[in-house]
Structure formats: C-alpha cells, structure tokens
Amino acid sequence: ARPQHEDPERARRRAKPDVRPARLRRQPVEQPGQRHEPAKARCNVGRDEGRTDPCPAAARAGDLARAETALGEALTLYPDVPGSYIRLARVQAAAGRSEAALANVATYASMGLRLDISRDPALKGLSDLPGWAEVAATFEKNGSPSGDADEIASVIGHPEFIGEGLAHDGKGWLLSTVSGRTIVRLADGGATTPFLKGDADTGAIFGMAVDRQRGLLWAAEAWGDGVPEGTGASKTGLLKVSLVDGRVLARVFLPDDGGAHQFGDVLADPDGTVYATDSAGGGLWRLRAGEVQLEQVVAPGQYASPQGMAFCAEGKALLVADYSTGLHRVDLATGVTTPLGGLRAGMAGTDGLLAVPEVDFGLRSASPLPLGVIVTQNGVSPQRIMLLRISPDCDKVEGAHLIAANLPGMEDVSLATKHDGYVVFVGRARWEARGQDGKLTRPDPGPIRVFQASVPGMTF
C-alpha cells in the first residue's frame, strides 16, 4: 500500500500506489495540507502531479508567484516532505529564480536523498550554477552503499507471496504475506512452513504485533477489490491468533460506513490494548483489552495514509507515520494529532516505525531520555533504514542516523522488528514485481529477502 511516492524520481517508476492496499497503497499521496488545510495551501507542481489542486493550474496559467506562495505555505505546515522542495524548486526555476531553486534542491539533498536532475527538464539547467558542484557531490554520496546488513533469509515460497511484516514469537521468525493470505514460519535458509491456520474468510495479512504475555499474535487483515488477488466487497479489521498453534481466535472488523478503509499496521501495548492505522481511511483505531468493538482514536481523514506507530512520552502518546506528510504525535487521551518539529529528516514516505528505547544515545544520566525509533522508508530514493532520536515529550526529531541504504537486495523495503540486538527487516518484499493491476509482471519474481543490521556504536 504505497501511495504515490514522495520521491519525485521514484514516483514515475513505481506503481505501488495503485497496487498496494491501504497501508501499501497508502492512498494516492495527498500533498501537504490537502486534507486538512485551506485550498491555498495545496500545491503539487511537477510532472507526476496535477489533478485538482490550484498549483498546477496556477503554473499552467503562468501564475508562478501564486504557485510558489502555495508551496511555501504547504512547507510551513509540513516541512519534512522532500518532494515539496523539488516541486517548489521547479516553480522557482520556471520563474527565473535559479539560486532559490538550487537552495531547495540542496535542502532535498541534505535529507540524504538522491535525484538525477539531468532527467528533469525543469531543473537540469541548475547544473550550470556555481553552487551545483557541492549539491552534486551530496547526491553522489547519498547514492553510495551505506551501513552493513546481513541477509538472514531468502524466501522463495509461492511466487504470489508478498512479504510484509515480521515478528519473533520466541521460537522463531514469522512472516506475514499479502496475496498469500497467510503467516508462515521461517526456517534457516528461508524455507517456510505454515503457521496460521486460516479459513475461507482469511484475507491479506499485513503488519503484526506479538503479545507474549497473553500468548497472542495480532495482525492487520484486509480483503476485497484493490488488494492483490483480492475479490469482492472490501473488509478490514484485526485478526487475533494463538501464538501456541496459529489458530484464529477472533476477528474484529471495522464496521462498514460506506467509506474506504484498510488496516495496515498494528501495535500492542503492555496492558493488551491494540492500535491499528487505517491507511485508506486516514484514521487511527484502538481495541482495548477484553473489548470486542473498535474505538476511534483519530477520526478518518485526519491523515492522508497513516502507516507505522511507536509508543512515546512514557506511553501517553503515539508516534504515527503519515506516508504523505511525515511523523505526527497523537495524544492518546484526547486524540489530538500534531506534526513533529525539529530536524528535517525527510520522513514522508515512511512505512514502518519501531521504538527502540534500549538505545540511550550516550545519555544514561538524562531523565527523561530521548526515544530511539527505527524507521523504514520505501517512498524515497534511496529506500533506507534509519534511527531517529525523538525528544522525550515526543514533539520533535532531535537527530537522525542512517543504518542501511543502497545495499544489494534492499530495493523493496517493508517493515522491521528487533531481536537479539539487531534490527531485522524485509529488504525485498516483492511488491516491485507487480504492475499497476496488482498482477505479477514476470513468472519468477525472485526471493523475498530478510536482513538484519546492527546500530553502530549502540547496544539494545
């Protein structure tokens, strides 16, 4: 469920938005402010955009000043959306403001991303400017292999399988599959054995969360038109599974209100409450321990396409990744959601979040400590795994460290978890082997690849 990628170069080459369901399709990426800000803040200028917002119309009409103003307002609202800097640079270049355009391209590069401006008619002229050499060097560095990740499983399985989520149940690795409609156990070398004892109603399985204290595995489930291999009416909800034997213990569906909904990521807290992001509906839901009905935390439409989650602020808040606009803090008592401030790390295009409170950043005496959060990003170029330092009150990004990017086998990153001091993630999920119709584009899609990586200089 990757919506249209924020990275302007990848946006033309990857069709995930129309293929991946909710979390994966992540709803055609709404531009910053499009869902919850006035129309004047919506701006989407570029070769891949131009549907209903005012900026393309303004640009076509030659009203570049209006387009630039709208993009600037959008970036004021959500400054961590890399693609918006490129769209603004295009407008500025068209208006003859080359130095300003180059400055925004440099900001994009400073987020650790890469872009070939020679393929962008609006920007390729910037390479003649005196300051271009430094920006070009940054792009080259950003495209170089970084970090160290070891492959721990190469999973063939059924060619239709799409590997999405990982979980460790204390016995071994579990992998959720989307079109495979199951959860499998991984053996050494990548062999798989069935784990989930599904039934005729089992749908595509996305993110998972283990509750070892209660012997449970929770998973996001969805089916119907729009899901790879899915047919019929759409449905989504939480799947409650026994960790002991893989039996389905219960399903908790999100009631049909006539709108588009699809659960993609789940998170369980110590008291047994489970949270789920609705990537198609743009809301956040909660199932309290012992309850049988879902409770709304954040109303549908507040996000464009919410993805991964992590607890923060001592459990009083939730960090949520919106694929379109970056990271947000949700007050769990009130449901109020606020974009994170601080360092501009280019967090639009984030799929998974994983809290690693074991990372102390060398601040053992500090109280309260900042929170470490692992981020998996597949909506930027390069796709990457990062470690963020989040402020104790969960309102800003204080630092960012690249764990892995541009490594062989990391062309289709999905979700991550942690085990035995390593971050473990799906580096190749097989989404890239599907076309816009959700069908395989080749008979042999190659293996699903799982990697582990350490966090340099830190122990958790």
Description:
Helices cover 15% and strands 32% of the residues. The chain is of the alpha+beta class. The strands form six sheets. Strands 1, 19, 20, 21, 22 and 23 form a six-stranded mixed β-sheet that branches. A four-stranded antiparallel β-sheet has the order 2-26-25-24, with no helix packed on it. A four-stranded antiparallel β-sheet has the order 3-4-5-6, with no helix packed on it. Strand 21 (371-377) and strand 22 (384-390) form a beta hairpin. The radius of gyration is 21 Å and the shape is globular. Residues 8-54 have low confidence and may be disordered.
- Backbone CA Rg: 21 Å
Counting DSSP E segments of at least 2 residues, the number of strands comes to 26
What structural class results from the helix and strand content?
A: alpha+beta
Percentage of residues in strands: 25-35%
Main beta sheet: 6 strands, mixed
Give the count of helical stretches.
Answer: 8
Low-confidence stretches: 8-54
Distance N terminus to C terminus?
30 Å
Question: What sort of overall outline do the alpha carbons produce when their principal axes are compared?
Answer: globular
Helical residue percent?
Answer: 10-25%
Please state the average pLDDT score: 86
Please summarize what this structure is.
The chain has helices at 10-13, 16-19, 22-25, 54-60, 64-77, 82-94, 98-110, 132-142, and strands spanning 146-147, 149-155, 163-168, 173-177, 182-186, 192-194, 204-211, 216-223, 235-242, 248-253, 263-268, 274-278, 283-287, 295-298, 306-312, 317-322, 326-331, 337-339, 341-342, 350-355, 371-377, 384-390, 396-405, 416-419, 422-428, 448-453. The chain is an alpha+beta fold and 460 residues long. The strands form six sheets. Strands 1, 19, 20, 21, 22 and 23 form a six-stranded mixed sheet that branches. A four-stranded antiparallel sheet has the order 2-26-25-24, with no helix packed on it.
